[in-house]
Amino acid sequence: MGMTIRHVVLISATLSVGSFVYMVGFSPMDESVYARAGAIDQVPGPSRLIITIRRSLAQGQLKTADRMADVLVEHNPEEPSSFFWRALVYRQMGEDESALEWWTMLDDQLTTLGSWPNRYSASQLDYFRAWGKFGIGEVEESQTIFLKIATDLEERSGGETGEVTDPGVLYNLACYRSMGGELEAALGHWTRALKLGYALDDGWWAADPDLEPLHEDSRFWDSHGQHDRDRPSLEADD
């Protein structure tokens, strides 16, 4: 199932770019995207670059996402997150062969990587591992990993009653169950997350690849008033 922009919601165009915190020690970056970078000769750290990539994908700004993914890889060449976002951006751009190359590298990297102390938790590495498997076509193994992540998160977050009430956790559960192939359970988590106040104003939910398996179910869109006829059908670009 190919990643597209056709479900990106127009409300994301109202997002504020905001101010960025820059980290010292890197070379200059694209000043057309970060005007301040030229003045202080720095680039944002990995987390800020990822935020920008997410925002760009949510807004359909594929060229910006592509540039930022290159910067992320250039300055963080060994990070699993760099492999993941580079592959994901290529996937969203429809460049399947390039995406496969990076999914394969991510899968190879994580085959021998058991832990990354003080940087990634075991569940974060499992998430990257699951996407690597999905990207190279090992869907069943990918689903198994995603469902394990969901089960572990549910057990940790249920409290004494076993009921998850945090909307952010419910959103993540919807993502993991969706990628794990449990679409009804994923939809239930999604609906409950909205009921408990999960905010939709950043627009990422519509471009989030983890929720893509739910896109063909009208209940996913109807649950928050976004009817099928309102969904963009054309890919956007900057």
Can you give a write-up of this model?
The protein has 11 helices and 2 strands. It has a two-stranded antiparallel sheet with strand order 1-2. 55% of the residues lie in helices and 2% in strands.
Show the helix and strand layout.
Layout: E1 22-23, H1 35-40, E2 43-44, H2 46-58, H3 62-75, H4 80-93, H5 96-111, H6 122-135, H7 139-157, H8 167-179, H9 183-195, H10 204-207, H11 218-222
Antiparallel strand pairs: 1-2
Helix pairs in contact: 2-3, 2-4, 3-4, 4-5, 4-6, 5-6, 6-7, 7-8, 8-9
Q: From the alpha carbons, calculate the radius of gyration and give it in angstroms.
A: 18 Å
CATH architecture of the largest domain: Alpha Horseshoe
Number of strands: 2
Tally of separate domains: 2
Helix proportion of residues, in percent?
A: 55-70%
Q: Could you give the distance between the termini?
A: 24 Å
What's the CATH class of the largest domain, please? Answer: Mainly Alpha
Parts with pLDDT < 50 across at least 5 consecutive residues:
1-39, 227-234
Structural class: mainly alpha
Residue share in β-strands? under 5%
Summed up, the helix count is 11
Question: What is the topology, as strand order, of the major beta sheet?
Answer: 1-2
Report mean pLDDT, rounded to a whole number.
Answer: 81
Q: For the report, how would you describe the main beta sheet?
A: 2 strands, antiparallel
In summary, what is this structure?
The chain is an all-alpha fold.
Features:
238 residues; mainly alpha; Serine Threonine Protein Phosphatase 5, Tetratricopeptide repeat; 2 domains; two-stranded antiparallel sheet; 11 helices; 55% helix; 2% strand; globular; disordered N terminus
